[in-house]
Design a protein that fits this description.
Bound molecules: flavin-adenine dinucleotide
Strand content: 15-25%
Number of helices: 10
Radius of gyration: 23 Å
Helix content: 25-40%
Distance between the termini: 43 Å
Length: about 450
């Protein structure tokens, strides 16, 4: 029986490879594409990357880098996807991991084995050879930004709209949008980037959203803004944290809310602002026109919920992604409503030996969190710490979900949200707590 199977060599999977290798834990890592880097490999031949040509990280490199392998000092604060993919190449080469990854090999099925562990079936892309192997543990790192989420149900009239409808997953370059009337739907990071880019070449760009949003500039006082939003100051005493965030948001106020839209989609100030200088500038200059949500389509026209309408050539749906595990049966794990029941966002309570990596949406970057998750998983595999009972794990999941509901409006976007520093601290605590049952002492 193999020790551990890692599914995917994106930034989460390679973080796990590095940690397990360092701990001397045997593993096989399968990657359906030909290279590492997953979403950050533009034009990845896994056909799963959502990267567009102009994509840069929106979390600063200082926040995104692995603790075990800092990014080069001469990289810009917000590197491009080309630079990030090169960083991942350097990472696997530095730690000698490349030859330990089996490329062009898809994991097609993971089934709990009768005597414990999991049967993992793989298929080699070139020759179609299938192989099944038994593993003690499986680490799922297949990413959650590749299966497009379309509005469900579709807007009335969408099926007869004469313009084009695309999802941001398929947006690559601005050329097809030159001279067009473009409607971008959504206010996440992709929506901001795509609206900014098309507004430079399109006849008009409209940005429609259900409710307002806080947009922060990338730099404040010469410092990458995410340092301020996740710095210990911003996580200090409540009054200091509130003051810091109020100051930050004051910089953007007025330009990001209003427009007749409902308030931003979170209930407290600290949650999920989007970072984009260009959007603020281009909104200010009137290059991008804000609209509320779509009400319906009619011919070549989009009607909005405030009664206004525009003739539109192409709608870009920046409506997010579905969490999907094609190789796992629904009876093992379900991601209905984009919710996955995971203790500390990693462990499904009822399936020992199965772990999920990077299945989080942080205010901050995923990579160092996936690295910290890998350390906790390695502790669990090596028996350095143990999990509490399943009832306690389910309770933690219920509490996490209740906290999300208190903080955000109900939305499929906020089902796996974490705060960068809080979550790092949570994982540190999980690693420190030994939940092993204490040996009972018998008094003679
Ligand atoms: C437009 C955009 C911008 C983003 N910007 C940021 C940012 O600035 N900062 C940030 O932290 N995050 C950002 N993200 C989130 C991004 O998803 C993560 O940074 C990162 O890609 C997560 O890495 P991952 O390894 O978990 O998933 P992925 O990068 O998606 O990697 C998953 C890997 O698993 C492989 N795989 C999948 N299924 C199988 C299978 N069955 N068998 C074998 N291999 C498989 C895939 O080929 C892929 O290589 C952004 C996402 C998008 C879409």
């Amino acid at each position: 029986m193999g020790e551990v199977c890692i599914i995917g060599a994106g930034s989460s999977g390679i973080a796990a490879c590095q940690v397990l290798a360092e701990r001397g834990i045997g593993f096989d890592c399968f990657e359906v594409g030909s290279e590492v880097g997953g979403n950050w490999r533009y034009g990845n031949d896994n056909n799963m990357s959502s990267a567009y040509r102009s994509l840069h990280i929106n979390t600063s490199r200082q926040l995104m880098q692995y603790a075990s392998y800092p990014m080069a000092e001469d990289l810009p604060a917000y590197p491009s996807h080309f630079q990030i993919a090169r960083y991942f190449d350097d990472f696997v080469d530095h730690f000698g991991l490349r030859e330990r990854i089996t490329f062009r090999t898809e994991v097609t099925a993971v089934r709990p084995a009768p005597g414990g562990g999991y049967e993992v079936t793989t298929r080699q892309r070139d020759c179609g050879t299938e192989h099944t192997e038994h593993y003690h543990s499986v680490l799922v790192a297949n990413g959650h930004h590749w299966n497009p989420r379309w509005p469900d149900p579709a807007f009335p009239g969408a099926d007869t709209f004469t313009g084009e409808q695309v999802h941001s997953h398929h947006y690559r370059e601005f050329q097809p949008y030159v001279g067009k009337r473009v409607l971008v739907l959504g206010i996440g990071n992709s929506a901001c980037d795509i609206a900014v880019e098309t507004s430079r070449v399109a006849e008009r760009t409209f940005l429609a959203m259900r409710r307002g949003a806080h947009i922060l500039p990338k730099y404040l006082f010469g410092v990458p803004t995410d340092h301020l939003t996740t710095s210990p100051v911003a996580k200090g005493p409540f009054w200091l944290r509130r003051l810091t965030l109020r100051l930050l948001l004051a910089v953007a106020r007025g330009r990001v809310t209003g427009f007749g839209l409902p308030e931003p989609d979170h209930k407290v100030l600290s949650a999920h602002p989007t970072i984009s200088d260009d959007l603020l500038t281009r909104l200010g200059h009137g290059d991008i026109a804000v609209r509320p949500n779509i009400a319906r389509f009619e011919g070549d026209t989009v009607h909005f919920v405030d009664g206004s309408s525009e003739r539109i050539d192409v709608v870009v749906y920046c409506t997010g992604y579905r969490i999907t595990f094609p190789f796992l049966d629904e009876s093992v794990i379900t991601s209905a409503d984009n919710e996955v029941a995971l203790f500390h966002r990693v462990v499904p309570p009822d399936h020992p030996g199965l772990y999920f990596l990077g299945l989080i949406q942080p205010l901050g970057a995923i990579m160092p969190l996936a690295e910290a998750q890998s350390h906790w998983i390695a502790d669990l595999i090596q028996g350095r710490v143990r999990l509490p009972g399943t009832a306690a794990m389910h309770r933690e999941i219920r509490e996490y979900r209740a906290a999300l509901r208190r903080r955000y409006v109900s939305s499929k976007r906020h089902t796996i949200q974490v705060d960068f520093l809080d979550y790092l601290a949570e994982l540190r605590r999980a690693r420190a707590v030994d939940s092993r049952p204490k040996p009972s002492v018998t008094v003679q």
